Amino acid sequence: VSSARLMALHPLLRRLWASAAIVLAVAIGNFFLFRLAPGNAASLGLVPGASPDMRESLERQFGLDQSTAMQLQHYLVQLAHGNLGVSFADRQSVAGNLWTALVNTLTMVVPGLLLALALAGVTGVYAAWRRGSAADHGLRALALTMFAIPGQWLGMVLLYGARGHLPSGGISDPFLTGAGLRVELGDRAAHMVLPCATYALIVYGAFMIMLRTSLIETLSEDYILAAKARGLSNSAILRRHALRNALLPLVTLVGLTIGTLVAGVILVESVFSWPGLGETIYNAVIARDYPMLQGAFLLVTVAVVLSNVVVDLMYSYLDPRVRL
Amino acid sequence: MPKLRPTSLARRFGLVSASILLPIPLLVGCGGAGSNSADTGILRIGDASSKIDSLNPFVGQNGFAAATFRIVYPYLLQYDESQNIVGDFATATTTSTDGKTLTFTTHEGATWSDGEPLTAADAAWTIQTIVRLQGGAAAKYAPYVTNIVRASAPTPTTLTVTYSAPTATAQDGLAALPILPKHVWAPMADGQAEELATYANTSPVGAGPFTLSEYTENQFANFTRFEGYYGATPKLKGFGFQFFTSNDAMLSALRSNEIDVAYEVPPTAVSQLRADKSLSVNDVPGLDVDVLGFNSSTFRDAHQELKDTRVRQAIDMAIDKNSLIEVVADGSGAISSTIVPPALERWHDTSVPATSFDVAGANSLLDSLGYTRGVDGVRQANGRPMSYKLLFPSVATGAPRVVTELVKQLAAIGIEVDARSSDFPSFLQSIYGPDNRYTSWDLMVVDYSFGYDPSGYLFSWTCPQLGANNLAAYCDEDFDALFGRQSTQTGDARAETVRRAQAHLAEQRPVIPLYVANSISAARNVGNLAETTSSPIVAANYMSKLWIEQAALQ
Fold first, then answer.
1. Could you say which of A92, B153, B399, B477 would form a disulfide bridge with B121 (CB–CB 3.0 to 4.6 Å)?
2. CA-atom Rg of chain A in angstroms
3. Distance (Å, rounded) from C-alpha B498 to C-alpha B453?
4. Number of Cβ pairs closer than 8 Å across A and B?
5. B424 inside 8 A of chain A by CB
6. pTM for the full model?
7. Cβ separation B137–A47 shorter than 8 A
8. CA neighbor of B362 nearest in space, from B404, B324, B411
9. Taking CB atoms and an 8 Å limit, are B255 and A164 in contact across chains?
10. Reported ipTM
11. Rg (CA), chain B
């Protein structure tokens, strides 16, 4: 089967093809965007007080002496080979640097996201089921507060509240060496608590409000009334009929949250000195480290595009009427 | 809607939540309270303002990179806490009668951390290499090797450095040069030696009191005592830097015993820290000067009135510097009448009076020059409104509040300021402009600090520094002559020339010193930390081997 026919046959492949085109377009756009900022890595004190000769020499090393078109061609060819290049600043591979930062960010975000979803699930279902009750008002007020609170401020409040009980910053205690695996694992977990909790609370509010609203709407549908008339238990009504439909908007929101992850976590990373993607991007901007910037923004682009594809797939799974 | 009973679904959600939450406290319980310096003998230093920008001594230039080099590498000389130059790898110094040759006796039997012998030949090679590459890979050290003709090591413990003329800053310069292991660095120093500038140096071979044992970029650096160190054995088993991205996290870590010393404490935190009896706060006059600079470039045609010293004087008079210190630095700062900060007592010219805050006087002065206010309250000069573009880097000390205050205060004398902030690299690019002509701005605010010799504060405003350290584009033959003269003098004669140079700048006002920020650190009251971190110049403590040799946790 030719690739053209295969794509015609499979809508998912068509989506992936479109996604690849978007990623390529954004990668090219980013390439030009970073070069609009004044200065480059060779002129920004990489070698303090460097003479013009030395700067030219560095530009040659970094390939910055070539025309922009040549640099773009080189970048795209390397990208096609899966090579993101070498950081100007620390001479390490961009992929390696990004992988470390991504793992650090995911270590905070994934538990935070799961925690937020779990909390939103419990409180959203409870509030929707007890619509109009004091508990509903209270939970809704809490969710709205979390939604409205600036993440950085919330992080600082938690930081001060937990002072002396939980570590203040960093991904681990750098001075805790040779204490044994169990202690070091515990130290890592302790360092995760505040950033994860902050991230969870920041995204929790929107999740809960979305789930509650969606569930209330679903619970007022005729088929719910019909289910009740058939004598189904509350649990069965919620699980089989209401929640599955009510989850659709929440799935979209979670997908968007993952897509815009960097913007969301950068403030949390900043408060807790968490060495994730946000800090990596900030440092790369300051150093005009083009390979790092290109790699980081490519990663973000891929995350946004892929999360959209995954959301569409989940939509299709949760609501069979939706086709890709 | 039916009455709620906990549904099985809600229970399931509860179980999910619990399953996510439960492992964390269990693991946290395993973690205990983290490291404790009393148990480990490791001194923990935190900072939220800077990191090690590079471990390569030809590249790294921020405070913690300098501290790392100072502690890992041998230096010929170093400063003590009284601003005197004393020996480090050199045990004795003699100067020839013509003042052109310095001869050093160095420690005998010293070794590098990889076991190779450390001799005067390493020092000679380092100096020779820096001199040869001062226009290229070693440009960072160019100001410190002025007038050096050659360095040689006639014996393993004798180093001779020859200058083309007597040089006032000779010892200060040599105190700034790390001695590098020739056997490691020589293979990279051939030709233009580009590799010297790009070598990561993640495992430096050193010979100082501590070696770098663990380093994670932007997060932390740990150092272990080097038993082969040629100097006094340090009391600490090790120490480390932890880099925070927020002051709140750093101060919280200090108060909860996660670190022992917090460096570069923000002035707003001083009163809170002082209330904590387990801490000592060291709030002392610093070396970091915030200045307002005027564009003196001959290529800048617009706003010629800003080149008139009387206009600069009026602007100086309109700035309430005491108010700046209160508002911006919570009182932790000092006014400086000259560009050399008062903390450098030996060099600061106390005879130059600080400009008094006098808005009425400033308005009268501008009125007398014929710069009258327009209908919008902004003065007109040479047919154009006195409306100026001010550039400042977002990382400048006290920014952006110091600029906000300036804008308000200058509005009181009919001067409008359009302030624009950017990151430091962009700021520099905008200041220099194409071909280093300085054509796109009128005013700038920036901070700078140098070491204990006044030459840094002076040479930044010399003509050869155009396109480099000279951000105001000020170029004056008389000032350059004064700078050149002091660099070949010694003793009282040099001090007198340095004072004249300061007075000359104070009169011409290419830059107006706004205030000098205090150096503030805080230490836990353990061992002798409180005592040893109470130096008048706190920077000296952290950058010196002397401090790290003395610091103790018991």
1. B153
2. 24
3. 10
4. 226
5. yes
6. 0.82
7. yes
8. B411
9. yes
10. 0.76
11. 27
